[in-house]
Amino acid sequence: MVEDEADIRELACFHLRKEGFSVLTAESGEEALQVAKRARPDLIVLDIMLPAMSGLDVCRAIRQDSFLSHIPIIMATARGEDADIVAGLELGADDYVAKPFSMSVLAARVRAVLRRREQSAPDDNTVICVHGLVIDPIRHQVTVRGEPVAMTPLEFRMLHALAARPGTVFTREQIVEAVRGGPYAVTDRAVDVQIVGIRRKLGKLAHLVETVWGVGYRFREAD
User: Do the beta carbons of residue 195 and residue 151 sit within 8 Å?
Assistant: First the structure.
């Protein structure tokens, strides 16, 4: 639990421990990275508004560290504004809660993310190959015409969900459900930002992810 406000941190820890979780704490971004490297936690609840090193900077550092990048992150934002939510998701956060949040909601989100992690092995491990794009769910790798493409965990799950059902039109809400396991209140704009990032990384194959105006997105069927 990374939170610089002592009352929020202590209250959240009290309730999470009541739910059976073992909780470590950090008051700053720098301390959070030290604790994460030492303890390798199963999940991090990370406040965005931290002194000196922001939560977004901490999230970025974790996702760039090969020893920590697998750790799920729930971002906490005091404002609940689209910009904070989008920034966190784009950096690879797995979920978010907007302050003020109820402790029961926080505990539920923690349980949901941990459950998804335990069930993270995809049901369909078939490698998807189409138009020079290869998506390997076992290795969690994407290549475009033989060149590896680095994607955040959320981008990978979104691309895989679309590509696994080519031609199927997904609404933004269905995309959220497919990659997160439940109808969380992620904004349409957040989904759109992820799609922009995916297309940018696909380069000349960006056209494979098609916009269906007024509905959502689909992966182009093979010719």
Answer: no
Ordered strands of the 209-212 beta sheet: 170-171, 216-219, 209-212
Q: Which residue has the higher pLDDT, 182 or 168?
A: 168
Domain 128-219 has CATH 3.40.50.2300: no
**Nearest residue to 175 (alpha-carbon basis) of 164, 191, 189:** 191
Pick one of 3.30.750.44, 3.40.50.1780, 3.90.1150.10, 3.40.50.2300 as the CATH number of 6-118: 3.40.50.2300
Main-chain dihedrals φ then ψ at residue 33, nearest 5 degrees: -65, -40
Structure tokens, 43: 């999940």
Is the model more confident about 70 or about 99?
Answer: 99
pLDDT tier at 122, thresholds 50, 70, 90: very low
Question: Residue 166 has what pLDDT?
Answer: 87
Q: Where are the domains of the chain?
A: 6-118, 128-219
| H helical segments located in 138-218 | 153-163, 172-180, 188-202
Query: Mean pLDDT of all residues in the chain?
Result: 86
Do residues 57 and 24 touch, judged by C-beta distance below 8 A? no
